[in-house]
Amino acid sequence: MGQLGTFERAASKLNTTQSAVSKRIQELELVTRVPLFDRGQRNARMTEKGEQLLILAEEMLALQQRVVTLSQRDEMPVRQLRLGITELTALTWLPRFITDLRASYPKLAIETEVDMSRNLYDDAASAVMVM
Predict the structure, then answer these.
(1) What is the dihedral of CA 38, 39, 44, 48, to 10 degrees?
(2) What are the distances in angstroms from CA 99 to CA 10, 25, 76, 83, 94?
(3) Torsions phi, psi of 85, nearest 5?
């Protein structure tokens, strides 16, 4: 109701009744244990806590929209791939493999480590144990 001025106008905007809007506000006040409107005058006025809750609700809706927008993007997120490879691999098929990966996943960050297979195995085993 905050921007519309009355529960009646809020109900009209929401295609519902004034009593349904009042009921939802009462339920929200019950759940939050915060009076959202000062009903002492003819027109209910939003309390300071009500205004704070309105700001939080608007932020939540904006975050929800950002999540929806993110899920609708075709853009691939940046990912990181760490590869432990032997010297023979680095000199033979790895360059072509990396070229193909970059073509398919342009935002992929590739980190390679060239070492002897035993050292690579030990590094991988210790990384799994840490996780």
Answers:
(1) 0
(2) 58, 59, 18, 14, 9
(3) -135, 155
Q: How far apart are CA 28 and CA 119, in angstroms?
A: 60
Q: Mean pLDDT per 10-residue run, the chain (131 residues)?
A: 68 82 89 87 83 88 83 73 87 87 86 88 81 58
Name the DSSP class of 75.
P
Helix then strand then coil, % of the chain, to nearest 5: 60, 15, 25
In contact, 81 and 52? CB cutoff 8 Å: no
Residue with tokens 């019950």: 30
Residues 6+ apart with CB under 8 A from 62: none
Residue 48: what pLDDT? 92
- 108 CB-near residues (< 8 Å, 6+ apart): 78, 79, 80, 81, 101, 102
